Amino acid sequence: MSAQVACLADDVAVAAALRVELYAADGGLVEVAVVRDEDGELHAISDICSHGQVSLSDGEIEGCTVECWLHGSRFDLRTGKPLSPPAVRPVPVYPLTVDGEQVLVDVDAPL
Ligand code: FES
Hints:
This protein is mainly β. It contains no helices and ten strands. A four-stranded antiparallel sheet has the order 2-3-4-8, with no helix packed on it. Strand 5 (60-62) and strand 6 form a beta hairpin. It starts with a strand and ends in a 6-residue tail after the last strand. Residues 49, 51-52, 54, 68, 70-71, 73, 86-87 line the site of FE2/S2 (inorganic) cluster (FES). Residues 49, 51-52, 54, 68, 70-71, 73, 86-87 line the site of FE2/S2 (inorganic) cluster.
């Protein structure tokens, strides 16, 4: 499966995140956080924190990072790498493109 519509660009405010569910080519459900950073750029990152099973879209956006609300690990929205403990594993980041009003995400080709 290739890129699919995740949401509309206007659905995601600056420094906010929207949780969406997309289907991978194998039929599995992928939970994605579509995040607009403080500079207005959109990113698609796994919605599931690599430290626990909680939703990153409920976290706080600062700069180009999202902070997990449960234990405070901060993840880089471009790379998915944790910038602070306790998380040590990155979370997947997915290619995102904007086509007119539509935000397209490819969950089968993590960056
Ligand atoms: S669950 Fe996210 S940092 Fe612990």
